[in-house]
Structure to design on (724 residues):
């Protein structure tokens, strides 16, 4: 690898290596090379792959399968489009999952069995944040704009991190007959008996936490008393008795018997999250917002809701409509996140996620206040009707755009596991995609560089194991509000259910992931990549040969090569016959069987020589086809990566002395195909990028895919790049 030169770059620009979609390991792994001229790093990878094949063949298969499954046509180009679409629309609508939108163009989820086996869906429900423009949210110390025509509310701290209360600035007097409960301050216990009536009210509405989180049909209200624009509906205002501050209490000269409750408390009005959610789901969404978002009347009538979101399908695609208010970044609640960033010393030598420049940019982004209060169990939900949860959709989208190709793939596989095994059983409760997203941010931060493409199966196994441990502990910190535990208000039985699913996958990784991958369908077979032949791989692994085959193979030497060829041919013929018989039996039994996969199958600890040969030959041919297609629709770097993987596997096949001739044939094909593909890449025009000298550092590689010509003028630096 060529020498690297550190140069400054503007904070809003991605690291050039990141733009080219690669980790440090991948940079070393994309040079064209022949097996006779592998470098030290290549030999390390070959030894690692060989060890996986010998000791953990199931993970060897999973590594190659996950490496070969594609979600993007051209990852670099697609992520550039995602980065350029970060701004929300002028209508106050934010679609934060741009990465998932791009993936849905190429891959959809369709169950192999079950009632939805003919229905295509995205891997995750599409989220739509709908911001209310009638209300302006002010920070604790912000001044109110006298010229503003909007209704104004001020953020007030809540006893729980990650939640706030919204206090109306111009408080109107409450109705005389209305009972006004006492507010619970930050220093008071949630079990304050004076608020028991509020708790009883919430209990009577929701009954239990399960009822609260179970999607319920919306109750459409066709007529509602209108309210003026830029005002809060009267039904969304609730009142509390709040203790006065010492400076507000004036008891001088007062007789103790004349002091009343009004001397200690005053009445304030809050913007009720629960009332606003009911107003939105039963009136605004069915009569105004739903149709403007493109939902039909039938789709709106079939909608269901939980506090903070509405579930609605558009043309069969599930959506989550999330009403929200916009507010500035809450620095006081996100100090832990703000203090992240680049460290001094050796920490600067490895990739950091997120960098300080990323954090600085995120702090300028708006947040969303969602009408969903904290709700755990009886006695701990007294303020839930006036609490708003802080969410960070823009920051999440920004961080996703900085995830590497391997990290994004791992994230998508986790979402597919959730949609296959967990979502059908939990029905929008327990572990949710939002938890998986947060968990992946923590995983990226823990080691941003250790995500090798050629061992993605092993990495996914470790990630699933880490998620299993978090579920066991019942702890998952919010990525932005460190003191907030996302699992705290989830019933344990739903977490245990997700645990069991992950445990089964850890026991049989390939079988567990096989069922998931089978549900992911490529949308365009011609212009996209060749699909994995999962059934063929499964048959190679689980297929039974004749009982004496393995013994015969052990006694065959180099001199018996012809006998081995005959034996292999007979074995392949027997496999084909057995495969046809098995498929016929499966077709007959599928009517009575939910699935054709043996979920109890356990992979052998050591594969027989012919199984190794069949797997290696299959993956070599597949990666040659994958690289060839990549040369037409993606980057040179990615194309060389897959040719390199085919070379690695060919080298391992060649070390099995019985298959030297077959390996040489594969090598000849790889050399020929690689040469043709490289010719198809044309040099990109020179692009000059100017950096300020005091900006963040970036590594500019003089490696395949990038050529740099650096010149310095005054306090700026010009880098001429050729990327191809």
């Amino acid at each position: 690898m060529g020498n690297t030169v550190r140069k400054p770059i503007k904070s809003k620009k991605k690291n050039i290596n990141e733009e080219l979609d690669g980790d440090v390991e991948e940079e070393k792994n994309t040079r064209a090379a022949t097996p006779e001229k592998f470098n030290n790093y290549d030999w390390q990878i070959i030894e690692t792959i060989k060890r996986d094949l010998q000791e953990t063949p199931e993970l060897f298969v999973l590594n190659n399968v996950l490496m070969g499954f594609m979600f993007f046509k051209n990852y670099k180009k697609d992520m550039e489009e995602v980065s350029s679409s970060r701004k929300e629309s002028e209508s106050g609508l934010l679609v934060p999952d741009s990465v998932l939108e791009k993936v849905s163009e190429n891959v959809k989820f369709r169950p192999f069995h079950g009632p939805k086996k003919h229905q295509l869906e995205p891997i995750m429900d599409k989220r739509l944040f709908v911001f209310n423009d009638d209300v302006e949210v002010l920070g604790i110390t912000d001044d109110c704009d006298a010229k503003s025509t909007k209704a104004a509310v001020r953020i007030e701290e809540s006893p729980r991190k990650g939640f706030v209360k919204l206090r109306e600035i111009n408080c109107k007097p409450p109705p005389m007959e209305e009972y006004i409960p006492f507010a619970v301050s930050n220093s008071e216990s949630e079990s304050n008996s004076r608020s028991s009536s509020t708790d009883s009210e919430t209990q009577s509405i929701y009954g239990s936490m399960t009822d609260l989180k179970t999607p319920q049909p919306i109750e459409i209200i066709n007529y509602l008393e209108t309210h003026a624009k830029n005002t809060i509906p009267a039904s969304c205002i609730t009142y509390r008795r709040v203790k006065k501050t010492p400076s507000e209490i004036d008891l001088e000269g007062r007789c103790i018997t004349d002091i009343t409750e009004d001397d200690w408390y005053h009445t304030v009005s809050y913007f009720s999250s629960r009332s606003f959610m009911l107003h939105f789901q039963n009136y605004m969404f069915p009569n105004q917002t739903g149709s403007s978002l493109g939902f039909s009347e039938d789709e709106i009538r079939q909608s269901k809701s939980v506090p903070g979101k509405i579930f609605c399908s558009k043309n069969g695609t599930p959506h989550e409509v999330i009403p929200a208010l916009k507010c500035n970044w809450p620095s006081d609640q996100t100090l832990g996140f703000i203090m992240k960033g680049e460290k001094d010393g050796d920490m600067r030598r490895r990739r950091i996620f997120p960098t300080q420049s990323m954090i600085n940019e995120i702090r300028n982004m708006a947040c969303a206040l969602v009408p969903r209060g904290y709700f755990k169990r009886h006695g701990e939900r007294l303020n839930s009707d006036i609490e708003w949860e802080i969410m960070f959709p823009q920051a999440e989208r920004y961080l996703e755009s900085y995830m590497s190709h391997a990290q994004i793939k791992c994230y998508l596989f986790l979402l597919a596991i959730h949609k296959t095994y967990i979502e059908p059983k939990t029905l929008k409760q327990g572990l949710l995609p939002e938890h998986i997203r947060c968990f992946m941010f923590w995983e990226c931060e823990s080691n941003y560089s250790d995500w090798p493409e050629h061992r993605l199966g092993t990495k996914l196994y470790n990630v699933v194991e880490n998620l299993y441990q978090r579920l066991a502990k019942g702890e998952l910190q919010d990525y932005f509000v460190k003191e907030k535990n996302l699992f705290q208000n989830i019933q344990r039985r739903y977490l245990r259910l997700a645990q069991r699913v992950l445990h089964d996958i850890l026991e049989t990784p390939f079988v567990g992931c096989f069922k998931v991958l089978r549900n992911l369908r490529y949308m365009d077979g011609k212009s996209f990549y060749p699909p994995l032949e999962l059934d063929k791989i499964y048959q190679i692994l689980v297929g039974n040969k004749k009982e004496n085959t393995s013994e015969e193979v052990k006694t065959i030497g180099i001199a018996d090569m012809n006998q081995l060829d005959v034996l292999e041919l007979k074995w392949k013929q027997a496999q084909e016959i057995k495969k046809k018989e098995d498929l016929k039996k499966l077709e007959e039994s599928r009517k009575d069987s939910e699935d054709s996969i043996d979920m109890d199958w356990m992979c052998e600890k050591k594969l027989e020589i012919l199984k190794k040969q069949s797997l290696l030959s299959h993956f070599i041919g597949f990666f040659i086809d994958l690289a060839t297609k990549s040369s037409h629709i993606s980057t040179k770097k990615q194309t060389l990566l897959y040719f390199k993987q085919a070379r690695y596997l060919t080298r391992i096949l060649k070390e099995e002395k019985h298959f030297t001739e077959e390996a040489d044939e594969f090598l000849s094909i790889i050399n020929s195909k690689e040469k043709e593909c490289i010719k198809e890449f044309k040099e990109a025009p020179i692009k000059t990028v100017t950096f300020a000298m005091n900006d963040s550092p970036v590594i500019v590689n003089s490696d395949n895919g990038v050529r740099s010509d650096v010149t310095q003028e005054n306090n700026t630096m010009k880098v001429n790049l050729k990327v191809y």
Observations:
- The chain has a mean pLDDT of 79.
- The first strand starts at residue 4 and ends at 9.
